[in-house]
Structures are given as C-alpha cells and as structure tokens.
Amino acid sequence: MNPREPSCEEVIERLFDYLDRELDHRQADDIERHLSRCRDCFTRAEFEKRLRARVEAAGTVKAPTRLRHRIRDLLDQFDD
Amino acid sequence: MPLASPFTSPPMPWPVMVHRDDSGAFMSYRDTASRRQWFEQRLEPLMDRLYGTALRLTRHPDDAEDIVAEAVGKAWIRLDKLRDPERFEAWLFHILTNTFISEWRRRQSRPQPPSGNESPSPDDLDAGDFTLFQQLHQPFLLWWGSLEEQFFNSLLQEDLQRALDALPDPFRVAIVLVEVQGYTYDEVSSLLGIPLGTVRSRLSRARARLQKTLWEQAREAGVTPHHPGQGGPRS
After folding, report:
1. Who's near B180: CB < 8 A, 6+ residues apart?
2. pLDDT (tens digit, 9 = 90+) per residue, B180-194?
3. Residue A17 · residue A23 · CB < 8 Å
C-alpha cells in the first residue's frame, strides 16, 4: 500500500517537528518524500534549516580567558 | 549518609582511559595526573560552546561564567560516575543545563525587585504566527538577487544573539534547549517540569517572536523588497 502523502498544509504544520527530529521514521519519510517533490515546501524547509543553523551557532561564543583560569584554579583546589 | 549508586554495576574509578600500545595491548591510566589531563583535553574543545550556551541561557556574561565554572566543578567531582567516556560531552552539557535550571528556579522563587531590565511578559510580545519566510520569499527569481539571500548575508551573529536575548526567559530557554542543545521536547518537558503541550507552545511563540525581531532588525538594516530603479529601500 502506498503511504498517503501529506498535503503542503500538513507539511508546513509539522515542519518544526520534522526539523526538531520529533517525528517517527514513517512520518519523517512522508515529509521527506513531499519535500523532494514540492518546490515551495522544499524552499520553506531549507529556509528554516538555514535559520536554525544560525540560531545553533549563537550558542558558541569565545570563552573568556578569565573563565579558563578560574576553571584551572578550581581543578587545582580539588586536586589539593 | 552516602547515596545509593544509580548503576547496576560498580562504576569505574574514573572514565575508562585505555588505548592500545604498540603491541596492541590495552593500557589504562588511573593516576591523578592522567585523570586531570584526560578531563582537560576533553573540556577544552567544548569551552566556547559551554560558555556560549550558558550565555544564551542566562544572557549575562558573569552569570554564564558562574554556571560554566559550577558545572565543570560538578563534572570533575562526579567523573567517576561517567561510565561511558564517549558520552562526556552530552554528560557535561546535561550538568550545565541542570545547573542553570536550578539557579533559574531559585531566582524565580525569590521576589524580583523592579530593575527595568527584566524580560517583558510573554503576552506582551506575542507575535502570533509571524514567519520571516512569508516576508522574504518571492516566488520568482529576481535578477538583482534574492531577498532571502540578502537577509542571510546581512544577518550578523550579533543580531541573532541580541534577538535571542530579547526573548522572555521561558521562550528563550525553550528555544536554546531545543535548537542550540538539541534536547527533545520530552526531555525539555522533564528538565523544566512543564507539560509537553507547554513546551510546544513556548517553542512556537519563541520562534514567531524571534523571527519578527529578526525581520525588524533586517528592515532597519535596509533589507526590504525594492527594485534597483526605485532609488533605495522602501521603509
């Protein structure tokens, strides 16, 4: 039996669940199949993925040298 | 009274530090200096992500340093509990998250004096179902370039950090846990002690608010639909 392909509306509704890896394999496959055929939804998904990668990158900030020294001193204290 | 071990088998004295020597035999290092070296070698490449994550969660550099230092100290003390050294990174980030949440709850339970810098209430910032994509997407290709490209090219990391920091605490924490740290909705629900539906709702509202702020920033930076012949961006 061919799996039912979700509509564009359903794909957009579940897009963040898909990007957040909250869907099971079958549901994710359904979304991916739709994205491989629908340019509009594919474009939207790529946009959100790209934005999401920038959000993720915001979680990397050069740690101050002061913090590194603080941690080294802390570990030295535990070693004593 | 010592706590009962959560493990079914006795934990290793510290992470299994084994490697093969030239003859292929496994060797292990259990002296204190090697233990410290093992820990620091794994910690160092994670420092910028630990600090950045802490900074996005707390919004304040001093608070971020405090929770990173506290989390690293806890990890060092509890290193013997880490049974799979390959899980060091996930384990350490989990300690960081729990350290932040404990501190966050402690602060929330205290009456907050008005400082003028506190987060606005989520309801004040409800962005509905706003999406950046709807603002930027043009269903036809313009010869002078795509607005989406223009947006991403002009989006500074500093803009994004500012937009994240402007989110009310419950929204910001939800989006950082999911999009920066990669927790599942179930895990966020357990970590924060809130229902799954609340996690979804906070995420959805956080994303709409974040995207609306980014759109406002982009407009200020001149990213708006315009034709080269019009002599400049429309306001």
Report:
1. A55, A56, A58, A59, B53, B56
2. 999 999 999 999 999
3. yes
pLDDT tens per residue, range B8-48: 444 444 545 555 545 554 445 566 778 899 999 999 999 99
Q: Which chain A residues are closer than 8 Å to B55 by Cβ?
A: 61
Nearest to B48 among A51, A60, A74 (CB): A60
Name residues whose C-beta falls within 8 Å of residue B82's C-beta, 6 or more positions apart in sequence: B11, B14, B15, B88, B91
Q: Is residue A14 part of a domain?
A: yes
CB pairs < 8 Å spanning A and B? 102
With a threshold of 0.85, tell me whether the complex ipTM lies above it. Answer: yes
Tell me whether A65 touches chain B (CB under 8 Å).
Answer: no
B164 to A55: CB separation less than 8 angstroms, yes or no: yes
Q: What is the pTM of this model?
A: 0.80
The answer to whether residue A3 sits within a structural domain is: no
Domain containing A26: what range?
8-79
